[in-house]
Amino acid sequence: MMDIVTLLLAAVFLPLFPFSMVFNALFERLPHPVLRSVMLLVWPLIGIYLLQGERQLPPDWTVIWASATAILYGFRLIAIRDMGRWIGFLATSAWSLLWVSINAGMNGGWLYQFALGFSVPLVMLVIMATHIGARFGAAYTGLYGGLAATTPRLSGVLVFATLAATATPVFPAFFIMLHNIVSSAPEIVAAMLIAWLLWTWASARLLQGLIVGSKAGEAVQDIGKVLTWLYALLMAVLALSGLYLAGGRL
Amino acid sequence: MNIALGTSLKIRSMIHMAAEPIPFFWPMRTFIHHNPLHGLEDMPFTEAVERGAKLFHGRTFLPRKVYQKYLAAGEINQFAVAAAIQDFVGNHERINGIALDKWLMSLLNEMELPFTLTNTLADAGDVHASLNSRDIRPVENMNLADLESFLCNKLLDCRPIYEAVDTLFGTDIGNELDELVIRTCLDFFDEGQSVWEMPERGRGLFAAWRCVAKRNLRFFLRGFHISRILEAADTPEGIIACVMQQLGIPEEQWIDYFTRELSRLHGWVGFIRWRSSARRYYWADQYPADLVDFMAIRLTLALALLNSRKLKRLAHTMNDLEETIHSNTIETYLRHELYGKTILPEMAFRVERAIQLGNKEKLEAVFYEYIAVKRNHEARHQAARFQELARLSGNQDALKRLSAEDISRLQNIIADFEKQEGMLWLHALESRAIGHLLNGLTPESGADGPEAGRPFAQAMFCIDTRSERIRRHLESVGDYQTFGIAGFFGVPVSFMPHGKGSETHLCPVIVTPKNLVLEITAAQYQDAAAITTLEKAIHELKESVLAPFVTVEAIGLLFGFDMVGKTLIPQTYNRWRRHLHEARPSTRLLLDKLSRRQADSVLRAVQRAVIEKAVEREFGIEPEKITDDITRDVRETALGRQHRADIFTRELGLNDEAAYAFIGRLQGAYRINRDFSHLQIEQLGRIGFTLDEQVTYVGTALRTIGLMKNFSRFVLLVGHGSTSENNPYESALDCGACGGNHGLVSGRVLAQMANKPQVRRALRRQHDIDIPDDTWFIPAFHNTTTDELHMHDLELIPPSHLVYIDRLRNGLVAASRLSAHERVPDLTPDENQETGPAKAFSLAQRNSMDWSQVRPEWGLSKNAYFVIGRRSLTKEFALHGRAFLHSYDYRTDPRRRLLENILTGPLVVGQWINMEHYFSVVDNERFGSGSKVNHNVAGRFGVMTGNISDLRTGLPSQTVLKDGLPYHEPIRLITVIEAPIEHARQAIEGVVAVKKLVHNGWLRMIVIDPDTRNASLYATERWHEIKLPIDESSSSEELFAL
Predict the structure, then answer these.
(1) Mean pLDDT, rounded, for B636-656
(2) What is the Rg, in whole angstroms, of the alpha carbon atoms belonging to chain B?
(3) Residue of B810, B778, B809, B775 lying closest to B796 (CA atoms)
(4) Chain A interface, mutation test: which of B349, B377, B380, B381, most A Cβ atoms within 10 Å?
(5) pTM to 2 decimals?
(6) From A132, which residue of chain B is nearest by alpha-carbon distance?
(7) A 193-222: CB under 8 A from B
(8) Under a CB-based contact definition with an 8 Å cutoff, are residues B489 and B746 in contact?
(9) A20-29 and A33-52 helices cross at what angle (nearest 10)?
């Protein structure tokens, strides 16, 4: 039997409700984008590291618990208007599904890659939220809108980052979800599909609340062309790594 | 609840009054250009646009940066702007050290965004502190009473209750309600697009909806207590009264409340308004509906939504909302900020969380923090605008020296200026356009000159702006004389085309035609061609619910070929397709009034044909066995003129019972009965015109345009229309004077009348108009999309004239090509592309056949002028399709009747067209119809954006904008009358509608006196004389002062 302390600690770092509140509370209180990015990259790795130290697999019920957490946070995601909080909730929902991968017997480097596959697009979203916040005061949906008309480059990157974070082909998260689905029992598959659907719904609402609409208010500056290319490159790398993931693991 | 008749009538009249500001919307099949603010034309233009902006939440002037572009391009005269600023400054108190004129000039020329911000918390003292980098004094005790009255004003001032609920609780009831109402409208008003009809439509909108709503599962699942609301009354008026009482709206506010409700879906409301007042509109006769029904449905659904399970705990009556504002002022304010989208984004999350927690102390703490931050923010932003403007006008030092009071005064003055800014730009734009027109016109003396030679041909074109080009080019290619007249040639006609059962009104919508003209043919009836039948079958398959699933694989490929053909080679493919269809037979118009005997004879012939068919069908008897005696016998019996049909019974070997049954069916199903015969005789009485009427119409048309002598051999009567593919707005490009239809039939009608010897004799006798015997009137069609000119009814031309036809045809072709050559570069993406006349002509034709073309032509875009006068006034002046040209010779109209006719009809239609374009440009989303790309046809009478929206009423962006900027220059119609001032003035005063338009500033009226060659412009409630020609550089300044 797995050490209970390790299990509890893992439930904090690979967030399972209610331990997930720790991550979300911390994430909310650390508004600096660098700190948030580091947290997004490192947090799940700690959880995986803790579980990797154990010889045994976590108990089966953790998968059910993880799926329920994914659905819960996916559901809450729909009503969230603050983009920072939105990213935290999506991270919680996505990372909880790493328990499914772990219980499916995955270990080693692949598991770390899976965690990063979920986290890197979220970091991109943090950067996008920072850009939006710098222009409007905060990245908050349904207040100003119309980014597609005022800042088309920023909107473009935001759309792709959101798609990558919500497991759209050909980004890594999509293949991770695919892997989890093919290696899970039907009821877990159903739960994961529900969570996935909720992410998609929430992402559509997020984008609708930010980029749809007509130009209003003062003109704001778009992100530079060089920066756009840089982000585009990053997205391309992400997409390629997704394909690599598919080729290597699936 | 049953309400008294008086109350019921009161509610009906309230709704009638509430809907007044909402303009009619005609079905798209006959698109009618209209002024979106037509209901406000009783008000001065300045006030009406202000009211319209509030009512329809639209912009009524262009954004400043677009006017700045006009200014940079020289479209607006800088002198005019400066004169306006000087005038404004002169009326305001000076502020020490501030060169106000410079500030205002910089504001107009260099600042893109408005200077005045909607500050709710920061005052001039805060702005002053911010300008001097001082801290803003903190708020210690906010006056909650002020806040309360601010909230009451914002939330409860004749605003639908659900809008207030949405603003306070972040719900989306307003949009949900609109969607439900639109779905009901789509179901009920459908004109054949849906496969499944709404049940019980014949009972009227409210009754039909009531039946459906009570059984609506979706409503039940969502917890709408529709039945409970509907039980309260039987009539729509009763429901309205009941809901308004439940919502707690005081009766004195009902009219304003209704107006706000109606203006949310002004497209649908405009359509229902028009429909309920339309006479002989088939769909309205079959399925009646009015705004009372609409309002009852809307209010029922609104109450059901507010009372629904999900929302019933929220405050949702007037009293509840007042109580909420009073008892929870702070929370209500924060909610208003958050859900009303006026919150500072940086505070949104904290405010949202505080509201969710609901802790009073926490809310209070967040509230005080929020108002401090917001006040600071507003003060900083306003101060930044001050600094920017001071920098632009080189007056930074003076700004620093201003006291808080000075800041307040300056802020108020600039706010006042910005309020008037739209009119300032509009005047400046118009004064440039007026100057340009007046300098281009060439008035001729009224004295008779030497008799001119007889032109080779004369042509009467529609006054439409698109005729200006082709008229100019036709005159340039040979000995042609052209005239402008309203495209229905002054003959209001209700037309029934060959093979159709419905009537089309060919006249401006403000006129109701009395006479019916039938199109008939001598050609034998033929079954539809195979390809036509196939096309019909395929379309029916497409429209069915299940068939597409089954047939997509079987015949999907056919559509594929069609698509490839239409997309890649539209010209060749469409020509090939046209060959597959049966050629249209040659037709004639039945336009002579029938005598009583003729009408009886026609009716008899029709009834006999029906009886023969009925006997053939019911008894399976071959036609040759049905003798005239049998039909007469049956007819007489069916009409009640005899009791028994003995011949019929005997010849067909029937018993009395079967014969009676058949006669009964004839009277019922086949409508061979006495009452219906009377009705038919009445209908037949509408057909055609008496000789007197024909003489009057021809005489008036010719006299109006001043064509009373010197007729040439050919007089073309050119109607116009457009052709385009996949374009619901096609009729918007057709002839407005023909009610949004093609104008050819009107040309044919007048030509047929004018070619009659009896008419010509009477004209000579009664009207002193001597049309020579060798003059022949030929109807023709001007296709405005391709610029083609086609003559019609050529088979009627006397043989002696045929030798000249080739010359005439060549002239028309040359004019078409030259016109296309002038017009097409504006339509192509690359304006500099060199195209010869032939290439341009070909491109124009391609445009008319390309189904992916969103802009087949520019239509009436850029319309700006309406010139009423002789051709000599504009002949030497290329107006590039910007002017309506109506021929008029005041010398032939001493009693001003003809001028009054022109003002009453054509000018009013021109003003509607102009205002439609104006408002569609200044706010294309609200007053226009947005992009065509997202449009979908709704119910076969309108378009919506996406799958559900209000009916889009104005013009699409592709018609008035180019690359996102105005193509049409939004100015009011500049009207010029060539006549002595007193003559014109009395005519204007004599037509109340036009007098109102001129006095209220809905159009700019100028009169040019041909004898003095001076112009008089109506402005500031009087006529001002302007000497011609005017100095171009100062003209606008002088004109602006008016």
Answers:
(1) 85
(2) 33
(3) B778
(4) B349
(5) 0.89
(6) B345
(7) 214, 218-219
(8) yes
(9) 160
User: Would you call B341 and A142 a contact, using CB atoms and an 8 Å cutoff?
Assistant: yes
DSSP B727-754: -TTGGGGSBGGGTSB-SHHHHHHHHHHH
**CB-neighbour burial class of residue B508 (10 A; exposed 0-12, middle 13-18, buried 19+):** buried
Give the span between the Cα atoms of B468 and B484, in whole angstroms.
Answer: 9
Q: B384 exposed, middle or buried (CB, 10 Å; 0-12, 13-18, 19+)?
A: middle
Determine the Cα–Cα distance for residues B513 and B493; give it in Å rounded to an integer: 5
Contact B352/A at CB under 8 A: yes
Distance CA B667, CA B610 (A): 11
Q: Which tens digit of pLDDT belongs to each residue from B595-632? A: 888 888 989 988 998 998 888 888 888 888 888 888 89
Q: What angle do the packed helices B64-72 and B100-110 form, to 10 degrees?
A: 90
Cβ-based contacts of B347 with chain A (< 8 Å): 138
Q: Which residue is closest to A136 within chain B, CA to CA? A: B345
B576 touching A, CB under 8 A? no
Residue of A nearest to B344 (CA): A137
| ipTM of this complex | 0.89
- Residue holding tokens 């029709």? B606
Name every chain B residue with its beta carbon within 8 A of the beta carbon of A214: 925
Nearest-CA distance from A135 to chain B in Å?
Answer: 10
Say whether A136 and B345 touch across the interface (CB within 8 A).
Answer: yes
In total, chain A counts a number of residues equal to 250
Tokens 């509907």, residue located: B230
Measured at the CA of A88, the angle between CA A144 and CA A25, to 5 degrees, comes to 110
Q: Name the DSSP class of B765.
A: I
pLDDT at A33: 94
How far is Cα A228 from Cα B659, in angstroms, rounded to an integer? Answer: 88
Residues B714, B786 contacting (CB under 8 angstroms): no
Stretch B286-294: mean pLDDT: 96
Structure token pair of residue A56 = 């045994």
Place of tokens 């397709």: B577
Q: Any idea what DSSP says for residue B30?
A: G
Q: Do A140 and B925 touch (CB under 8 A)?
A: no
Tokens of B391: 């920098």
Question: Can you tell me the distance from the alpha carbon of B683 to that of B672, in angstroms, rounded to the nearest whole number?
Answer: 15
* Residue B47, H or E segment: helix B45-56
